[in-house]
Every structure is written in structure tokens, then in C-alpha cells.
């Protein structure tokens, strides 16, 4: 079996650039991008049962219950385009979600995009999101009435108000930081760490470069170690 990274987790607070860096990972490794926030917003837009249940949590800046999000993620993973792997953007956010995904598919790498709370506020309060495809841009870069390349309209996300940003950030520190600490200690089947921490403060280009280079280093290292140990793996643990 050819060794390649299969399931990569992108973790970090809102506005840390997780979506942007996930797209670069998709291009490089040919995996599919699974954004839990976008899946939830799609469910809300399509007025599904799960979407209706999730909406009040999202509007308040709280995490939706594990049961709902795990169900949505597992369903998405069963789609054909996810068979070669995925980069998870915004998932897992709780220890229970983390354990569930490790058990379900295994994890090749975890990238933690670390930025300060001040920068989160600065970025989140000044961003616009395409209603249709979910891509993000800064208010200062979009002219009034300008549409996204996909034809969708840019809007301020309902959960990008100051109050909700603060709630989400508090949840990140309280609930998701322990997940970061958990992954820091995870060792794969080759005895290698799977955790990478990136300073996500710089420009998109420089952080993107750093994310890809760090992943490459991690995978090349695990490949070498696997060869040495006579093991050939698909990188999923
Ligand atoms: P995001 O687009 O990743 O910032 O997510 C938007 C909102 O969706 C979050 O503030 C949560 O309310 C909800 N959400 C997204 N992913 C998860 C998750 N893995 N677990 C629980 N809630 C989530």
C-alpha cells in the first residue's frame, strides 16, 4: 500500500485561518475539505432536522452537542469523494469528538493554528463570509455589492458579532484547548507524534508555507521510520 496522509485535523480558534490552510492541504494531498461549521450552516440553510436542532447553539456562540456533529461528520465521510481522506476544519472541538474520530478513521496529523485572542477579535470582527460557498474575506478588501467568485453574496456571519465572538473564544479556551493538549500527546503506530503547532499570526502566504512544510516534514519522517521498522502504512495511524 502506498503511504500518504489520509486524515488531517486543522484545529484553532475562529479566524485563525483554518479554512484557508485546509484548502492548501486539499490541493497538496488530494483529500477532501470537511468544515464542520459549513456542514452545519448547510444543514440550517436546507432546514434539515439536525440543522434546526443546531441553530440555537450556533447563534449563541456555543458548541452544538457532540451527538449532532458526529452524526453529520460520519455521514459526510461516507460520501464517495471522502474515500481518499479528508482535512477536518473545525472538528473535533471536544475530547469526545476527538476520541470518536480516532476510533472511526484514525488521524495522520493534527495542525494547531495558534493566534492570540486580540488577533481573533481583530480578524473575526472584520470579516465577510460568502453565503454560498463559505469563503472568507476581510471587509476592507470587498467593495460594496461585490460578489464572491462563485457568484454568492458576502454577508457578515450572524455569529461574528462581538458578543458571540467572545463566547466562542471562551469555549475554545475551556473546551477545545484540552483537545489540543490531548493531541499533543498522541503517538501513532510508528511511535511518532502527529501534532504540529503553527504560529498563525503572519501573512496567509507565510503561514500556508509553514503548514505545508511542517506536514511534509512530519510525513517524510514517519515514512522513513516505517521503512526502517519494515512497516508500510497508509498513514492513518
Ligand atoms: P466554524 O465555522 O467552524 O467557526 O463553526 C461555527 C459554529 O458551528 C461554531 O461556533 C459552533 O457553534 C458550531 N460548530 C462547528 N464545528 C463544531 C464542532 N466540531 N462541535 C460543536 N460545534 C461546532
Helices and strands, with pairings:
Layout: E1 7-11, H1 18-29, E2 32-35, H2 36-45, H3 49-60, H4 66-77, E3 86-89, H5 95-104, E4 109-114, H6 117-124, E5 127-130, E6 136-138, E7 154-155, H7 162-184, E8 195-199, H8 204-228
Parallel strand pairs: 1-3, 1-4, 2-3, 4-8
Antiparallel strand pairs: 5-6, 5-7
The structure holds adenosine monophosphate.
How would you characterize the overall build of this protein?
This protein is an alpha/beta fold and 237 residues long. It has 8 helices and 8 strands, in the order βαβαααβαβαβββαβα. The strands form 2 sheets. A 5-stranded parallel β-sheet has the order 2-3-1-4-8, with helices on both faces. β5 (127-130) and β6 form a beta hairpin. It is globular. 35% of the residues are buried. The structure holds adenosine monophosphate. Adenosine monophosphate is lined by residues 14, 36-37, 40, 57-58, 61-64, 69, 90-93, 97, 159, 168.
Bound molecules: adenosine monophosphate
Main sheet: which strands, in order across?
A: 2-3-1-4-8
Count of extended strands: 8
Structural class: alpha/beta
Amino acid at each position: 500500500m502506498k503511504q500518504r496522509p489520509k486524515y488531517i485535523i486543522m484545529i484553532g480558534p475562529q479566524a485563525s485561518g483554518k479554512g484557508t490552510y485546509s484548502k492548501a492541504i486539499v490541493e497538496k494531498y488530494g483529500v477532501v475539505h470537511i468544515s464542520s461549521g459549513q456542514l452545519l450552516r448547510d444543514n440550517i440553510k436546507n432546514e434539515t432536522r439536525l440543522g434546526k436542532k443546531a441553530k440555537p447553539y450556533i447563534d449563541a456562540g456555543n458548541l452544538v452537542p457532540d451527538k449532532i456533529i458526529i452524526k453529520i461528520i460520519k455521514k459526510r465521510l461516507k460520501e464517495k469523494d471522502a474515500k481518499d481522506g479528508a482535512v477536518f476544519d473545525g472538528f473535533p472541538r471536544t475530547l469526545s469528538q476527538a476520541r470518536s474520530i480516532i476510533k472511526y478513521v484514525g488521524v495522520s496529523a493534527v495542525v494547531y493554528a495558534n493566534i492570540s485572542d486580540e488577533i481573533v477579535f481583530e480578524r473575526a470582527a472584520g470579516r465577510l463570509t460568502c453565503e454560498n460557498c463559505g469563503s472568507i474575506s476581510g471587509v476592507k478588501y470587498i467593495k460594496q455589492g461585490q460578489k464572491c467568485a462563485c457568484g454568492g453574496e458576502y454577508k457578515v456571519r450572524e455569529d461574528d458579532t462581538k458578543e458571540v465572538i467572545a463566547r466562542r473564544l471562551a469555549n475554545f479556551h475551556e473546551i477545545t484547548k484540552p483537545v489540543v493538549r490531548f493531541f499533543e500527546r498522541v503517538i501513532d503506530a510508528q511511535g511518532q507524534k502527529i501534532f504540529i503547532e503553527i504560529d498563525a499570526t503572519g501573512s496567509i502566504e507565510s503561514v500556508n508555507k509553514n503548514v505545508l512544510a511542517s506536514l511534509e516534514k512530519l510525513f517524510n519522517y514517519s515514512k522513513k521510520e516505517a521503512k526502517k521498522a519494515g512497516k508500510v502504512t497508509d498513514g492513518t495511524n
